[in-house]
Amino acid sequence: MKTKRILASVAAVxxxxxxxxxxALPYQSQVIEGTSISVAWNDIASEFNxxxxxxxxxxxxxxxxxxxxxxxYYNATPELLKQEEFGTxxxxxxxxxxxxxxxxxxxxxxxxxxxxGADMLLSWVAGFGYFKNADGSYMFLHAAPRDDLAxxxxxxDGKSLEFSYDKAYVDWEINFGVGxxxxxxxxxxxxxxxxxxxxKAKFIEAVMTGDEAWLQPVADAWNTGYQKxxxxxxxxxxxxxxxxNLFLSNGPYRVEEVVTDDHVTLVANPLYTWGPSPxxxxxxxxxxxxxxxxxxAVDNGDVQAASGQPTADLxxxxxxxxxxxxxxxxxxxxxxxxxxFNNGGPFDPxxxxxxxxxxxxxxxAFLLTIPRDQILDTIIKPLNPNAVLRNSxxxxxxxxxxxxxxxxxxxxxxxxxDAERVDKAKGILADAGITTPxxxxxxxxxxxxxxxxxxELIQANSLQAGFNVIDTSExxxxxxxxxxxxxxxxxxxxxxxSSTSLAITGNDQQYGTDKPSNFQDYANSTVDENLSALETxxxxxxxxxxxxxxxxxxxxxxxSLPIFQFPGLTWWDNGLTxxxxxxxxxxxxWNYWEWAPAAAAQ
Amino acid sequence: MLSFITRRLVxxxxxxxVASFVVYMLTANSGDPLEALRTQNDxxxxxxxxxxxxxxxxxxxxxxxxxxxxxxxxxxxxGQCNLGVSVIRGDEPxxxxxxxxxxxxxxxxxxxxxxxxxxxxxxxxxxxxxxxxGYDYTVxxxxxxxxxxxxxxxxxxxxxxGAIRFNEFLGDPSIxxxxxxxxxxxxxxxxxxxxxxxxxxxxxxxxxxxxxxxGILILLDITxxxxxxxxxxIGVALxxxxxxxxxxxxxxxxxxxTLQFSVGATVIAVVxxxxxxxxVWFYFNNPLAIVVVALLLAGLGVVAGFFLxxxxxxxxxxxxxxxxxxxxxxLVLDQMFMRWGDYVQIIPLRSGVISTIGANTPVLxxxxxxxxxxxxxxxxxxxxxxxxxxxxxxxxxxxxxxxLLEVLNQDYVRTARAKGLPETTVxxxxxxxxxxxxxxxxxxxxxxxxxxxxxxxERVFAWQGMGALFNQGLREVDVNLVMGVFLVTGVxxxxxxxxxxxxxxxxxxxxxxxxx
Lengths: 602, 516
Prior knowledge:
- Chain A has helices at residues 2-21, 58-67, 117-127, 182-189, 196-209, 212-225, 233-236, 291-300, 312-319, 356-368, 372-380, 402-408, 418-432, 449-463, 508-511, 525-535, 540-556, 598-601, and strands spanning 32-41, 72-74, 80-82, 87-94, 97-103, 155-157, 160-164, 253-259, 263-268, 280-287, 305-308, 324-339, 438-443, 467-471, 492-498, 560-573, 576-577, 596-597.
- By secondary structure, chain A is α+β, with helices and mostly antiparallel strands.
- The longest helix of chain A is centred in the first third of the chain and has 20 residues, at 2-21.
- By secondary structure, chain B is mainly alpha-helical.
- Chain B has helices at 2-28, 35-38, 45-56, 62-74, 94-129, 134-147, 151-171, 177-195, 199-223, 232-250, 257-283, 288-308, 313-326, 328-338, 340-346, 370-408, 411-418, 423-460, 466-475, 479-507, and strands at 85-86, 92-93.
- The relative contact order of chain B is 0.13.
- The model of chain B has no long low-confidence stretch (mean pLDDT 87).
- Classes of the chains: A alpha+beta, B mainly alpha.
- At the A-B interface, strand 1, strand 10, helix 8 and strand 15 of A face helix 3, helix 7 and helix 19 of B.
């Protein structure tokens, strides 16, 4: 019955397309009337401003991503692609780094008001923490304000905005974009302003003249005004609704309805007349926290797509789907073992009277005895048959520079089979004149079954080379808290770093000397220099060189060993086509415009 | 009375205070709210950690933080609750989050409790009356199995068979003749075991139930009723007769002519009202309509009882009124089933109607049509309620059986029998009431257990209530949220205990809670 309706709609759309093709319309919507789809995520949106400190999470990012377009996005590779139909950006100067963003004419908010420089200015003011309160706190509570990067007010020219960074910044491309609408935010703060043009003009004027008293209510609206967990379709109507300013969007969909902790419904935006056309008229995102429930929901037809972290049980359930498909893939987090350099343990030169070479030999030997192949084959491959060992500390497998970096970073020191590596480790220990057994205090978070299995494999394997791995697991991550332990008491720790973007910066937090996330107290001046140079290096070729140099030093020092990328699992109803998982946020939602009913695709 | 309630409330407050301290300390020490941020190599995570530390006041030890929280919670007394904000829910005030969740959980839990009591007591009574029969042993066996089942497992199985497979069946509802006959045989066995009596009576009962069940199933298959089910005036009439007979049986008036006439007239009036009520349901499309119609039909019952009741006028008016009011149910069901065809088109399910997640279908959540919304709620409520019920019912069955057996052995029951009262009167009027006293205690205890079960049930059925909040809060160590849930569920459990105490005095004349 539903298939028939879909076919009829397709036919109708097709027929009108033929009739209209005489007029050669530049844009033809492919939205099929009456089609809707429900998809699951483990949490539901609570705020429509996903850039604010309180709204910055994946659950909020998903509806915001579907409702809005932007200058760029991540595809499934993952790599950053430009969305030129929305607008363009270019680097106009290297010294100082100056960038210019221009939004295309056709791009409007869902109430018909053009997206322009005022909207970008709002995003700029918030993202670069330009205004501060008297006590030094930020006026706009952005999730990650970067007032260290830019402090000169941009210049606005209609739909363009140009600004310069105080210092060269390698990740400038993903550091700026359009957020919530300027006129909507202003009109929420000042309900007496009803003309969008006036709202925009007043906002620009206030920013340019630094009128903080006038901006304070706008900042309040930006910070908390977008928190909304419940809204009906009437309220969100872009022409008459009482919440129309709150749910303004500039992309293929607009928010139609929000129900607390249950679902968000998005409906095709009729003013979206550019860019890739979506196929479904409505997308409903429902909250299902339990992955098993999400599999049964797809089986029953309650939702058409879902994703989760696989376990053997979950995989078996998904494989049993009668009318569903699934695909395993990577997630953004990767498992790795870090060795501690300063706790007087076996990996600290102090244990060998400051003999750094001996400590290095022990570190190399220990990392060599970690049975990476066995861990991958027995724990990860059953969940994701395509899984491979990760051989880079800075980049995700599949990302643009991964292969080049792996080829030159010295990770081949750890190639070969598990058995070959154990022999190699024995040789290194013997050459360095180390007496075994060596006690290694090993930490993993108690209760994590997968890591417990990994530890068991490591214990058995490294014993062959004379390492006595002692389980010092505890549930809390106390070693990460300097107020608990100034020096990490564990000799080796296993956990995962998760990335949220392909940002090149950020690794200095883990590997830079005395940085807050450097729990192993790793210190290498080459790494420090290269990482800080990387932050301001704008030439992509040189970026790869610097990353390779950093990795070469890290691998050479045997500081850390990456093992595998976390497996992910996405499954969907066969009535739906076009679902492709993506390791980065917004995960499998990244190509929602390609989702189509199977009946229409034939 | 007042002093009793005051004393109970003071004691309750002390219990809640100690419990809240324990729960607060346990939750605060259960994990690290910054854990996820610690393992992100996002440059912003350091700043985020600092913000969160300040927001959650993590530098203050939990012991002192508890008293800060208590200060805010205590101001609830003066109507200005400050339960803090829930950080993991985007700084939403906890009171706000609770308000939304409370409604859905309480509706689930209360429905499950009420239905469990009804079914549990009914089954328990029948087993007690057929003590040591095959039926008794079977129910006892089943009760112990259900009592020991883990609820998450029951819930997942219910979804597999109650939703996914059943929906597949509804997509193509054909009942082969041999299944119809087998089901008929099984039901015949059960019914004759419940009814009991000597061999001839048993054979007759079995024969009738077999013919009825198999006949109905075959008829359903031939007419393809399950494909587009409807109730209509015939269904309303059949159900009305059922309600009337049940009422007569429960009040042990099955053989009284006057009562039969009154109830019969009421049922006929209900059926006659079917057509005019169609307009009421359509134009007065509001849940209130149910109350209004129930009152109206109860009124008809009163009138019928008044004129046909004869010597038993009061009793007749009462029974007929209840029959009338209860007959609203088939009428409302009829309205819901009328929308079946549209409903199946609207919902996203592949086939069938039973949903496995959530409290309603998103597109219907704000529908104007009350009866459509009710149909939608029912298809979503049925499985979680069943999951919660299965375990509770088993408990109630056992308690009711034991209590009724004990009561039936008492002297006053023997006296009642000796003076020649019919068995139904002895049981329904004399024994049943005293059976309810211990049951009231169990209800209060069980309510707490059902709320506990709801935490798991809500997760499995993606139902967004207190249980979901509790899960979320505990997983991400959001102490404010967990405490908010604790406060509501704790108060609810305690209130139910007080209500049970009050119920004692209503049920047992020997218990006086007023100071003499």
